[in-house]
Structure formats: structure tokens, C-alpha cells
Amino acid sequence: MNNTNPPTYRSAAAAGIASPRLQKSLHGLQDRFGKGAMEIWATMDDREMRHRVKDSRMNTFAHLDIILAELAKNVRARGGQVHFAATAQEAIDYTLAVAKKNKVKRVVKGKSMTSAEINIDPALEGASIEVVETDLGEYIIQLAGDKPSHIIAPCIHLDRNQIGELFAEKLGIDYSNDPPTLTMAARSALREKMLGAEMGLTGCNLACAETGQISLVSNEGNIRMATTMPPVLVALMGMERVVATLDEHREALHLLTRGAALQKLSTYVSFLGGPANADDPDGPKEFHLVIIDNGRSKILADPEFREVLACIRCGACLNICPVYGKIGGHAYNSPYCGPIGAVVTPLLDGINKHADLCKGETLCGACKDICTVEIDLPRMLAALRHKLAYGSDRWNTRQHNPIEAYVYSLWKLLVSNSFLYRLSLRLGWLLQRPFVKKNKMISKMAGLADGWTADRDLPPLAGRTFTDLWKRKYAVGRPSASKAQKKGGS
Ligand code: SF4
After folding, report:
1. Residue-range domain boundaries for the chain
2. What is the pLDDT of residues 57-78, one digit of tens each?
3. What's domain 48-294's architecture?
């Protein structure tokens, strides 16, 4: 993953919150797609389908080596070439070798999160190969020199006025903020690029072991051109994207398009499994499938986190997450943002390195409710926090904040001992006095606690606890207690 001098999570999140334009875009996105997906799940005739797809994903992981071997065998039987890459670098090296062997000068890309994960573009450009994104959103991002901020809608942080200005500057057209005009401008620029490309590079929504094909969904048709017009095609696939049978593929696809864009089916679904042949003359002369591990085996081996591999990257969890809905995708500094990014990025790229991501989510549970395949992301976020609190040899994680760990150990001691708890409340009540202002609120705490008052005032600890008041009013045998009971009529 590319992390060259990224802004911190806090600064990027603060910038996102301070941007009225981003807030408007995120609100519109969540209002439509978040609510829409929840409605679909609530009204679907086949309520069991999400369970079935989740089960089939988990069953696949129990036999992943066999199912991947079957996929490779069937792709090869179709004339395709398959390469297993243990690391991002291996996947890059293989793709570069294919490009060099074919004297490639231009690569046209279909949308691929895996290509962003392994950061292949700089390697291709370093070999003097022009890289052109053909997904409209990704193309806009590339022209802007920006980064995607949503799994499905990469340029959700830009509005049409900004895109109009960008196209006027980069494509030399008259300024317009009319979406059809902008789309046509991108279309004609991209068509030229696609006609002259020697290689297509794409991701993989799903792969079907039974048929030896990968499938790609899109609403623009660009993927069909990028995968069939150039003479060479390389498809990059995370090794977890495989499903065993065509029936399982059908159900997963059924959910994917609903979760992603509230569609019964996307406009285009392409199945690709090998080079063109006499029966199927459209397509590349060479087809390469690169099946990438890059840390997934480690996740697979850990029952605590294996479930996250079931993700089909529909993006629905982003569309409901209250944190993503305020800070936007750039704060996650990863191709995978939102709740899924907060789990998968630390697992793939280092838990300590991405501690802010798993600590930043609220654990409200909305992502689990909306998840197309019912992944328990909040449970895994809590598990990641546990590793940060106590360290983990298995995940090479050191204690993130030892002081915080001591504070919570102390807290645990206090709340599990009523005498100590009452004593600490009393002490807290005394110590807080210099901080209580005339309005009877605390507007600034000291030291490590100052974050609690950064955006709001806090009410001070009460002089008498609820338990004190209760005892005073209702203690059996006291005159005030019987009076209060009479008054209340009970
Ligand atoms: S975690 Fe679930 S909702 Fe989020 S992208 Fe993955 S499948 Fe979709």
C-alpha cells in the first residue's frame, strides 16, 4: 500500500469534517445508498440468501487450496496463464515481465482495488509504460492526481463543478458542469487511449473455480473494452475472491450489485477466462490471471479474522458508517476505507501502523447490519483494539499506548470495588473544582484528558451520587422514605 508522507488520520479526518462540500456529498451518498441497501435486505423475498452466501464463502475458505487449484486448472484449460504471487512485489514483477515481453507502451486499466493495494502504477510508469484508468471515477481521480475516497464511488469527494474545471484544464474542453457533457468528453478521450493500448490490466470481482473464469461488473462498459481490445490482458485477483461453483457465483453476484448500487444486476457483467479462440473470437491473445496472497494467508490462518476475507467489496458498509459519513475516505489512507478498511488495512499492512483506523470507528454495529455477507466487523474491530491494548506475537503487534493500558487497568480496579469507586468519585469531585466554571460546566480538562473537552463542555461530577440520593430518599425505615412512598401512592 502506498503511504508516502500521508497526512495523519486526525488531520485528514478534521479536514474532511471541515469541508461543507464533502459533508454534502457524503450525506447524499448515505441517504440514498445506505438507506436503500437496508430497505433491500428488509424486503428481500429470499431472506436466507445472505446467510447462504456467507456460509458458502466460509466453506470455500476451509478448502481454499483445492478450490484455487481447480480455478487455475480450468483457466489453463481455456488457454489462460495463471501465476500465484505470494507478495505484492511478486505480482508486480510478473505483470512487468508480461508487459516487457509484449513491448507494451500503454496499459488501460479497469477498476481494481488490488492494483491499488499492491501499488503497481508507479512500477509500470517507472518502466516507461503509460497507465490509463478507464473507470470514469478512477479516470477523474487520475487526472486530478488525487486518491479514491470510496470503494465504489472513488471521486465522491468531488462535485461536478470541480470535475468541470478539471476537464477544462486537463482535456482542453470548454468548462461545463453538465454530467452528460463531461461523460462524453471522458468517453472520447478514453476511447483513443483504449484503441492504442497493448495491454489491459484489471481486477476481479469474483472468480468461479468450476468454470475457470473471473467476473467483472460495471455500469460503464469500459471494462469490456479494456479487457477485450488490447492483445494482452492481466487480471489481478486477491486469492479470497474465488467461489467454488457457478450457483454460488450467481448468488454472490446477486447480492453484490444490490449492496453496491441497489441494482438487481449491473449494466455489464463480463466473464473472462482465457484468450480469444475460434468459438469466442473477441478478446485478448494472451490472458494472465495473477492470484495474489499478500498477507491473506495470515488472515486465513487466524479464526478470529478469517471472516473478513468473505468481503465482496460492495462498499455498503461505507454507506451507513457514521464515521466514514463524517470524515470521508481519504482519512483511512488506504484503498480500503470505511469499516471494512478499518479492519482489513491493519491486517494487511500492520496493526500498529494503522492503529488509528481500528480505534476511530464507533462500534455502533451499523456496518454489520448492512453488510451484504453479514461480516461481524465490530467484533473484529474490538479484537484489533485488544491486540493494541495488550500486544500480540501472532500479529507482531506491540502495546500501542502503555499509559492508556495502565489507566484502564486502574479503571477496572475502581469499578470492581465499591469502596474504591466511591472514594475515587469523592476525590474526583474535589480535584475537579478548579476546572468548574461559573456556568457549572467544565470547558477545559488538563493533560491527557483535554480531548474530552476539545469540542464540548462536560458537566462536573455531582457532589452526591445517584446511590446517595436514592438511599437518602428511599432507605427503608427512614421518615423521608415513607413520606415519599405516600406521595407517590405506592
Ligand atoms: S464488509 Fe460487507 S458491506 Fe463492507 S464492503 Fe465488504 S461485503 Fe460490502
Report:
1. 48-294, 422-488
2. 999 999 999 999 999 999 999 9
3. 3-Layer(aba) Sandwich (3.40)
